[in-house]
Automatic annotation (TrEMBL):
This is Phosphate butyryltransferase. Gene3D superfamilies: Isopropylmalate Dehydrogenase (3.40.718.10). SUPFAM superfamilies: Isocitrate/Isopropylmalate dehydrogenase-like. The lineage of its organism: Bacteria, Thermotogati, Deinococcota, Deinococci, Deinococcales. Residues 93-311 form the Phosphate acetyl/butaryl transferase domain. The keyword Transferase applies. Keywords: Acyltransferase, Transferase.
Length: 320
């Protein structure tokens, strides 16, 4: 089967570009197999339905067949050619879905109508889970229609790690860089965000940011340009960086924004969605396969974009 040469992929500049790349992958390599744990959720199945119509995925649905059928009817998903596998409860659905991915029968894991803790417990199972020894972290890809940035942004971690320490932040950066590489950004610019752009010994965030920035300079974190601490304005606005006289290859040009904790990241994410009408796609990185783990409040559009991003990553992770 023909593969995708990611070296020839132009850096994607929008969420639409992510969907287009997922379509290309499907056309060349065939649809990705997505295992959905506890699939009886109309919102999840709506995204699955759209991705299936687009030819991006071949879903495998785990859970109560009657409830899955009822949810599928709500969104017009014809199950006659869909693989539906019974599971007695959510724990069983999570286990079966994870095993399907860990065995290689599926490429992507997706959360349905079950608690995140239940799914992650299965993911982290030592015998048949998707553990790699790496930190699991959430990476958000987004663009803001109508804004003049002209690039795709990434933010981490606003959904998984509550108060990451320095070691965790390093892996958060590395996971985000992997996502950026997958969409054609060979040397992403990473801004370690803080309230200020100077190193204040009294601010642990700024100190961590400075350490990670220096690690990037020394090649301890590879594949990216890293600077920090940087405030949000001078991370994304060249004008703000110029006014504040910050001379850096990252300032004003950041692709990846790394926040200090889940509170900052979660507010940032919801501000993007509800105030800026950003188009978003979220993914859990650090496991053996991409994990689509969205909030029930996320739009069906966001869930679809997340599936498309997972398809790109599933292809990318086969060849790194």
């Amino acid at each position: 089967m023909t593969s995708i040469d990611f070296r020839t992929i132009e850096p994607l500049k929008s969420i639409s570009g992510v969907v287009d790349l997922a379509r290309l992958i499907a056309n060349v390599r065939g649809p990705k197999r997505v295992a959905v744990a506890a699939a009886a959720d109309p919102h999840v199945l709506s995204a699955v339905h759209e991705a299936r119509i687009e030819g991006l995925i071949r879903p495998i649905l785990f859970g109560d067949p009657d409830k899955i059928a009822a949810a599928a009817r709500e969104v017009g998903l014809d199950l006659s050619k869909v693989d539906v596998r019974p599971a007695a409860n959510n724990d069983a659905a999570a286990e079966a879905a994870v095993k399907t991915v860990s065995s290689g029968e599926a490429d992507i894991l997706m959360k349905g109508l079950l608690d995140t803790a239940v799914l992650l417990r299965a993911v982290l199972n030592k015998e048949w889970g998707l553990r790699t020894g790496r930190l699991l972290s959430h990476v958000l890809a987004y663009d803001v229609p109508g804004a003049d940035f002209g690039r795709l942004f990434f933010m981490s971690d606003g959904a998984m790690n509550i108060e990451p320490d320095l070691k965790a932040k390093i892996q958060i950066v590395e996971n985000a860089v992997t996502v950026a590489h997958a969409v054609g950004i060979d040397q992403p610019k990473v801004a370690m965000l803080a309230a200020v752009e100077v190193v204040n010994p009294d601010m642990s965030t700024a100190v961590d940011d400075a350490i990670i920035s220096k690690m990037g300079d020394r090649g301890q974190i590879k594949g990216a340009l890293i600077d920090g601490p940087l405030a949000l304005d001078n991370a994304v606005s060249e004008h703000a960086a110029h006014i504040k006289k910050i001379n850096s290859p990252v300032a004003g040009k950041a692709d990846i924004l790394v926040v200090d904790d889940i509170d900052v990241g979660n507010v940032f994410y919801k501000t993007l969605v509800y105030f800026a009408r950003a188009r978003v796609a979220g993914i859990i990185m650090g496991a053996k396969a991409p994990i689509v783990l969205t909030s029930r409040a996320d739009s069906e559009e966001a869930k679809f974009y997340s599936v498309a991003l997972a398809c790109v990553l599933a292809e990318r992770l086969q060849f790194v």
